[in-house]
Design a protein that fits this description.
six-stranded mixed sheet, about 450 residues, Rossmann fold, about 40% helix, 20 helices
Length: about 450
């Protein structure tokens, strides 16, 4: 039974939505027609866990599922071996088949906190190697004839890897592509610039550009397989013969390639719905490539604490994108924040609501109590993991201790020898609540000693 309630459709197409193609009216007409639509979102398994950023599209898929539509969670086990092109380096490291399959092993379990894989209208799980791995070179050439190089090069990340000049805004300090361009580093070095002005795309303020504000970006190579990636991802829509696709707005280009292929090969209009991204104060999306993600596989304590570490400006977008609290309630919170309400209380509510979605209310409540004990009451957690000390009473430096007991990494903390030294120099390691900065100092460790790493990582010896 397809739900065509206009209020629910309006909420579906507004909450967290960035763009709709070909247009909003087209999708409304489909949704009120009563036809059962087939739609999907793809996830490349480039890491062993999904994160809160992925939950935004999973929640939108669930909204469609609850209206009765057929939803597909597509694992890009083939495209994941290639990697979506990035503007951060010349090319992504390619993964093996074994690596991508190991990475996505728990994806269904993680997504099942949001999608229903067992009900009467159960979500489906598919893998794009089923069709992409079977294509021969002739198939690829035929498919490539539907996409021009000019269209592919419209993707801004390729442009950002070409030689370019960037300016640092004097107001918000963000880097942006400067209107003043140089083809080579030599031309850049030879230029003498004064009193040039432009508008910063981040803070929208007029900023002057002088020599010291300019940075030259040398060319990073773009490889042929990266140009083919949008084609392969776009073909997923054709292979599954879908009506639509959902994805973050950073995937808009790839999804629109799928629209082109659906028109050419199926003579069918595919709708594309892009969601807003959860971004930090610098405009960077929260995710694994930025190192600021909150994993869906995280413990309740790590999930709650990770969200509490977000900047205050993420509170309202976090509620809107990552929860399903009523919008009226979220708007009231936004007004309260503008009126001077302590943002910590709102952020704690956000951390609780998100943690509850993945761990249940009782566990989320315990995570909140433990967080408050650590940060407000300066207490140690109730359940601290233990690590056996082979020789209690022995003198160790802290880096040697951590190497001996085999603690290599906490989520978000590098506890290799060099990583431990760096953390100590930053004052981020405490022994029995006493900060230790001298990594050469030998300490007489005994069973029962408590080591604190960063703001919220603890373990006990013994």
């Amino acid at each position: 039974m397809i739900n065509t309630d206009s209020t629910k459709i309006d909420q579906l197409l507004n909450r967290g939505v960035e763009n709709i193609y070909p247009n909003r009216e087209f999708l409304i007409k489909l949704l009120i027609s009563g036809k059962r639509l087939t739609l999907y979102t793809g996830y490349d398994p480039t890491a062993p866990t999904l994160h809160i950023g992925h939950a935004i599209t999973l929640l939108k898929l669930r909204d469609f599922q609850e209206l009765g539509h057929r939803v597909i969670m597509l694992i890009g086990d083939f495209t994941g071996m290639i990697g979506d092109p990035t503007d951060k380096s010349a090319t992504r490291q390619q993964l093996t088949r074994q690596q991508v399959m190991a990475n996505c092993k728990e994806y269904k379990k993680q997504a099942s906190h949001i999608l229903d894989f067992n009900g009467s209208n159960k979500a489906e799980l598919k893998y794009n190697s089923k069709w992409l791995a079977k294509m021969n070179f002739s198939d690829v050439l035929k498919l490539a004839s539907h996409l021009t190089i000019q269209r592919i090069l419209e993707r801004d990340m390729f442009a950002r890897r070409m030689p370019a000049t960037y300016a640092r805004c004097r107001e918000c300090k963000n880097l942006f592509r400067s209107p003043i361009q140089f083809g080579t580093k030599e031309a850049f070095d030879a230029a003498k610039l004064t009193n040039n002005t432009t508008t910063c795309p981040f803070c929208k303020k007029i900023t002057s550009i002088e020599n010291k504000d300019l940075i030259f970006q040398p060319e990073n190579k773009v490889y042929s397989h990266e140009l083919l990636y949008p084609l392969m991802q776009g073909y997923d829509s054709v292979a599954m013969d879908v009506d639509g696709e959902i994805g973050g707005n950073d995937q808009e280009f790839n999804m629109l390639v799928g629209r082109t292929l659906m028109k050419d090969l199926k003579n069918k209009e595919k709708f594309v719905l892009t969601t807003k991204l959860l971004t930090d104060s610098g405009g960077r999306k929260m995710g694994k490539s930025e190192g600021n993600m909150v994993a869906l596989s995280a413990s309740a304590q790590d999930m709650f604490g990770g969200i509490m570490s977000w900047s205050d400006e993420l509170i309202i977008s976090g509620f809107m994108l990552c929860t399903r609290l009523p919008e009226e309630e979220i708007k009231k919170m936004e007004q309260d924040l503008k009126s001077g309400v302590n943002p910590r209380d709102q952020k704690a509510r956000l951390a609780f609501e998100i943690t509850k979605m993945y761990h249940g209310e009782a566990v989320a409540q315990k995570a909140q109590e433990e967080f408050d004990n650590i940060f407000q009451k300066n207490k140690n957690p109730n359940n601290i993991p233990s690590h056996k000390l082979e020789n209690p009473g022995t003198d160790y430096t802290i880096p040697d201790l951590l190497q001996e007991i085999g603690v290599q990494e906490f989520p978000g903390e590098d506890l290799s020898r060099s990583g431990t030294i760096r953390l100590m120099e930053e004052g981020a390691i405490k022994i029995n609540n006493i900060t230790e900065k001298d990594w050469r100092k030998k300490i007489n460790f005994k069973n029962g000693d408590i080591v604190k790493v960063g703001k919220r990582r603890f373990f006990k010896l013994g």
